[in-house]
């Protein structure tokens, strides 16, 4: 049996549940983090929006961005005791339509583009081909409404299997009032996180060196927020 965290991007699972993952792995569970949206981008000129993000992250190209971020993810997964598995869907900032037009030229907190009406179903098929009957699946609630998170959750639900949902960090920390909309009708379960789990959680997030300044401003701020969030345990939700 595997515990599989279906992660939209190359940090979401560790950001949201790194301490729990560490404790599960330490207890002898086989934990894998399946990052869906981390493929190398197609050829073509980047949008100014994508270029601005690269500058913020400290990268010179899309290829470098994906390559370095995959390496960061491998280090973070190792810290929390999980195996990193990378899939090939490019980030929304790189995706293009049939005529080569960028689908998300201005932002990521938008509705899925009509040109991608079948993307979630294609991801579902890709995931299903690698799953075993006894795998236990975790996926994001999609707090923050990032288009990639929304698409990945839809794909996970398309599997027709039981899911445990985790809250998206840092979006929950930035807007805790947003949680209610996503958990109505859900059954919460609290998972305690050990002190070692919290320490590994912080260390795992710190491995995403390109992302921490944008997400938390600094390592100290990140540490404080994660330690505070972990005090009352980590909540997961089930529906249905």
Q: Would you write up a description of this structure?
A:
With 240 residues, this protein is of the alpha/beta class. It has a single domain, classed as Rossmann fold. 43% of the residues lie in helices and 15% in strands. A seven-stranded mixed beta sheet has the order 3-2-1-4-5-7-6, sandwiched between helices.
- Please count the beta strands (DSSP E, at least 2 residues each): 7
CATH topological fold name: Rossmann fold
User: How would you classify the helix and strand content by structural class?
Assistant: alpha/beta
Gross morphology: globular
Number of domains: 1
User: What share of the residues does DSSP label as strand, in percent?
Assistant: 5-15%
Taking all Cα atoms into account, the compactness measure Rg is 17 Å
Order of helices and strands: EHEHHEHEHEHHEHHHE
Describe the strand arrangement of the main beta sheet, using strand numbers.
3-2-1-4-5-7-6
Separation of termini? 23 Å
CATH architecture: 3-Layer(aba) Sandwich
CATH superfamily: LmbE-like
Which CATH C-level class is it? Alpha Beta
Let me know the largest β-sheet: 7 strands, mixed
User: Please, what is the average pLDDT?
Assistant: 97
Helix content bin: 40-55%
If helices are DSSP runs of H or I spanning 4 or more residues, what is the number of helices? 10
Low-pLDDT stretches are none
């Amino acid at each position: 049996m595997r515990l599989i965290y279906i992660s939209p991007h190359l940090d979401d699972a560790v950001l949201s549940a790194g301490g729990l993952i560490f404790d599960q792995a330490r207890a002898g569970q086989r934990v894998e983090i399946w990052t869906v949206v981390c493929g190398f981008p197609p050829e073509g000129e980047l949008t100014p929006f994508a270029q601005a993000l690269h500058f913020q992250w400290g990268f010179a190209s899309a290829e470098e961005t994906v390559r370095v971020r995959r390496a960061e993810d491998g280090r973070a997964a190792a810290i929390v005791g999980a195996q990193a598995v990378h899939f090939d869907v490019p980030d929304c900032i790189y995706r293009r339509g049939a005529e080569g037009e960028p689908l998300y030229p201005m932002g990521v907190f938008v509705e899925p583009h009509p040109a991608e009406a079948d993307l979630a179903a294609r991801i579902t098929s890709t995931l299903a081909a690698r799953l075993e009957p006894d795998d236990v699946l975790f996926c994001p609630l999609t707090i923050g409404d990032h288009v990639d998170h929304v698409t990945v959750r839809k794909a996970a639900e398309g599997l027709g299997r039981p899911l445990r949902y985790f809250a998206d960090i840092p979006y929950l920390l930035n807007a805790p009032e947003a949680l209610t909309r996503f958990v109505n009708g859900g059954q919460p379960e609290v998972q305690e996180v050990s002190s070692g789990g919290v320490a590994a959680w912080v260390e795992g997030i710190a491995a995403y060196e390109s992302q921490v300044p944008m997400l938390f401003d600094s390592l100290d701020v990140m540490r404080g927020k994660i330690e505070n969030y972990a005090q009352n345990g980590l909540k997961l939700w089930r529906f249905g």
